[in-house]
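Late entry, glutamine complex.
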Amino acid sequence: MNELTKSSSDTYFLGHPKGLVTLFLTEMWERMSYYGMRGLLVLFMTREVVEGGLNLDTGTAMAIYGVYGASVYFLCVPGGWVADKIFGAQRTVLIGAIIITIGHYILALPFEKTFFLGLVFVSIGTGLLKPNISTIVGQLYKPGDIRVDAGYTIFYMSINIGSMLGFLVCGYLGEKVGWHWGFGAAGVGMTFGVIQYIFSKASLGEAGLQPTLDESEDSSRYLSIFSISSVLLSLIIISAFVGLWSIDPQILNQIIVYLILIVAIFYFVYLYLFAGLNKAEKGNISMLLLLFIGSVLFWAGFDQGGSSLNLFAKDYTDLFILGWEMPATFLQVANPLMVVIFAPFFAAFWINLGKRNLDLDTPQKFALGCFLMAIGFFVMIFGVEVALENEKAGVKWLLLTYLFHTLGELCLSPVGLSATAKYSPKRYKGQMMGIWFLSSSLAAGLAGLLASKSFESGISSMPGLFNQIILALVIVGIILIIANKFVKATTDLEE
Ligand code: GLN
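Prediction complete; structure with ligand written out below:
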């Protein structure tokens, strides 16, 4: 019996392979780090120096947030490649985790320069870890093992438990004790993550142990490409840190959005025209393109949670409960908490619809996600009006907004991942997972641009912008529903 088969029949953890515990805990600490940062980043950058912040103007802070989010998810594309071609997913996850940990300890230092260096480390490390840990989950099971979807659902829980920890622990320490304590706390979490990963890695067996090279491919050639790129990237970063060049974050944010857009367009054009795909496979690519568009718009709205809505929470929301002012980041806990609460109901709901032959197609679920996101922004417009009249709004507005955003996420995010796996042409499975993350990357960049706009003339800019976001979400939702009819007919999931 080889390792893969052995782990496949393993029911150690809630009926799932033991390796899932290792991945669950590692992803939990990694997401604590990512969401802890997401919660604190904009607040820290916009606070005055006397409050320990960087005193950046709102537009610049939002742009840096956009560049950070876009980089994290963009780096998942080369991160997947490094695992496939050179180190294998298991080792790449470990390297990524160590780099994130170092990044957080750098962030714990109370200097402005080291702050940005820490962000670079965290982005690179997350790019190496996130896509590969997601792939290993699937590889814990034999092909055709029906537990794989449930495995991903458990994994999605670890994401959200981690993000709750991030918002609560890093948020509390960062806002109440000192910003760098918050950043450093994620480093302590990641240290636990790295130690447990090293000691329990054996339970992953063969899953993601080796690179997935063809016979004809030569790993040492890839290692040279990787080494040269790493040296170049380091030179670019170091030269910026010693002051050889600098760029306005808002311009960088725009450039990054255009670059990612160009990469995405090229990739889809390549797949249609030059990848030698048959008609049905091209139909499947059209389906993925449709989901890509829906995903970009959805996450661009969702990511306002860490930027414009987060700042709204800090400065324009009454955060006092029983005389105690809670940290603004605590409000962001609403999203992961509601994901954990509602996810099982959603799973049951889809199954129920299926039983009645009312199954929704994936683009229809995405459309629903976009509509729910739009409702969330609609609610928020009222919250902003209240704050404009009374200086501060109650927490209910943000909580209600996050409720709709979370319901939208549950329509879109879990199904997006499995649809990507399903519709990808066999030879391009790994890289297509990269496309899924590329949509999050483009969205994060776009979110930075939108968030800058939302504060152009204080919060009075918000209602106008939110109306535009609502319009875009509704239009894309309708396009998804209409296009689905045509695209669906051209897809073919037969092996
Ligand atoms: N909440 C999910 C995660 O953190 C998805 C986020 C995204 O794709 N933008 O993994």
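Residues 31, 159, 299, 413, 440 surround glutamine (CB under 6 Å). Will revisit in the morning.
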